[in-house]
Amino acid sequence: MSSELRSIAIVAYRDIARFWRYKYWLAGQVAMNLADILIFGLIFNGVVNKDLIPDYVRFVTPGILCLSIFISSFSIGREVGVELRREVTQYLLTLPVRRESLIIGRLLGGAARGLIYQFGFLVFASIILAPPSPEGWVYVLATSFILALTMSSVSISLSTVTRDFNMQATIRSLTYYLLFFVSNIFYPQRVIAARLGPLAPIVDYSPLTMATNIYRWAFKYDVLLNPWSNLIGLLVWSLIIVVVAYKLYIRNLLRD
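Structure (tokenized):
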């Protein structure tokens, strides 16, 4: 058991170490997320209806916490996709590591990337919004870990569905924008209901919506939200997607 945990830790550490190779990409993503909060938020703060959103910067900040994890955890899928296309998996299979440990390590490595990347934004959110209570921090940390693991698993699943690069890129882009915009990150509930009509409840079941709701509650932007029900919903999403990612990834390893 201890050797399996050590193998998982080594695989996860390898992916975390590779994360720092993308310094320019990371710098660009940090700048983009900060721009979402400062520039995008400040501009829209003067445009949106004050009755719906009194302060757009405070409204959008919890959603940016979700996006920071979403974007960074998704990076692991690109590497898995490249390895499959270039048949690097042949090398991975020769390592003295069980396939199950390899897959779990990669899922956790991708999740760890998201948590590392999000840390600075949590500090930033604590300054812009009210710092969470001890109970609120428990919800924040649990939400961040579950969301990071979910997004890492989604990314790996998409990259293992097919080895065709163009098909991978198309599926990833569609999923990326679907998750990105079908959520309440940028829009309040009343606007979503007015625009989508009977389809509006779909947004409530998005994992990004659930995570954003928990962040808005924890950072005391909207204390009327129910963090527990949103956390349960997010956990259900995560369990389903992790199982799918595991099965898809091991299917490709066995094919080789």
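The radius of gyration is 19 Å. The mean pLDDT is 83.
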